[in-house]
Amino acid sequence: MQFLRKTAVRGTSPFLIIAVAFGGLILLGTILLMLPVATKSGQGTSFADALFTATSAACVTGLVVHNTATYWSLFGQTVILALIQVGGLGVVTVVVGVRALRRQRISLRERTIMQESLSASKIGGVIRSTRFIIVTTIGIEFIGALLLLPMFVPRFGWEGGSGEAIFHAVSAFCNAGFDLLSTKRPYQSLVAYSTNVEINLVIGLLILIGGIGFVTWIDVRRYGWHIHRYRLQSKIVLVATVILLLVPMVYFFNCELQSFPFR
Questions:
Q1: Average pLDDT of 212-233?
Q2: Alpha-carbon distance 79 to 33, whole Å?
Q3: Interval 27-45: pLDDT, tens
Q4: 129-166: per-residue pLDDT in tens?
Q5: Which is more confidently placed, 187 or 144?
Q6: Does 10 have pLDDT greater than 60?
Q7: What is the 3-class SS of the chain, one letter each residue?
Q8: Would you say 168 and 156 are in contact if contact means Cβ atoms under 8 Å apart?
Q9: How far is CA 31 from the centre of its chain?
Q10: CB atoms < 10 A from the CB of 182, how many?
């Protein structure tokens, strides 16, 4: 937050502050992933591979150059998880959100930066919205991890299963695409759980809820079922989400599940 204050004094644009903060997050993640302790072999990782992984995690892209489950150590996986979480929420959102939760004073300039980060239409209520986003994110990810525990604990034990549940709840909610399940077959991801309805349902719901975006969350919180009062962005997001869910679902059901009486 000291960086935000210094740049605010210099008059740097909010966009540049957000970009530099995000770049700093990726650079920090790269340095941490290059450490020998970040890999299971203890040999460290090249700058290019660490930079690619840190960028992919912070940008919640999901592309990898090393198997996350077998190449990275617990420390490395924790760094990747932190990059996913901060990248999914936004660096500025996390920093300002933590200060807001601690009831610290937020300057007008910092509120302006926060407004830009959230793409909010007005500066009023930005801190309240940030607090809501942070608390809601943690709450939903916690519930998701609890729902995944019964599926992972029998296979990995309480310690390993808890870690798997937390990692995949955060990864799914942030739409990151990273997984720790490719231990027997490289890059298998959730293929081994393709017939597990519970895991597919929980992961799918986390992806859906996290994917609709913060602006839509805020409108749902404020107006409930009064959709006509939502902002245009939220309306477009919800309509597009419904279309993109229903149309492919009907298509796949018709093309791949011919044994079911679709017609």
A1: 84
A2: 7
A3: 999 999 999 999 999 888 9
A4: 778 888 889 999 999 999 999 989 988 888 889 999 99
A5: 144
A6: no
A7: CHHHHHHHHHCCCHHHHHHHHHHHHHHHHHHHHHCHHHECCCCCCCHHHHHHHHHHHHCCCCCCCCCHHHHECHHHHHHHHHHHHHHHHCHHHHHHHHHHHCCCCCCHHHHHHHHHHHCCCCCCCHHHHHHHHHHHHHHHHHHHHHHHHHHHHHHHHHHHHHHHHHHHHHHHHCCCCCCCCCCCCCCCHHHHHCCCHHHHHHHHHHHHHHHCCHHHHHHHHHHCCCHHHCCHHHHHHHHHHHHHHHHHHHHHHHHHCCCCCCC
A8: no
A9: 21
A10: 18
- With a CB cutoff of 8 Å and minimum separation 6, the contacts of 140 are 173, 206, 209, 210
Nearest to 164 by CA among 153, 177, 176, 175: 153
Angstrom distance (rounded) from CA 209 to CA 45: 34
Whole-angstrom distance, CA of residue 18 vs CA of residue 34: 25
CA atoms within 13 A on the CB side of 9: 5
Calpha distance 246→115 (Å, rounded): 33
Average pLDDT, the chain: 83
- For the record, the structure tokens of 106 come out as 């937020």
The pTM of this model reads 0.81
The 10 Å CB-count burial string (b at 16+, else e) for 47-63 is eebbbbbbbbbbbbebe
Angle at which helices 108-118 and 91-101 cross, to 10°:
130
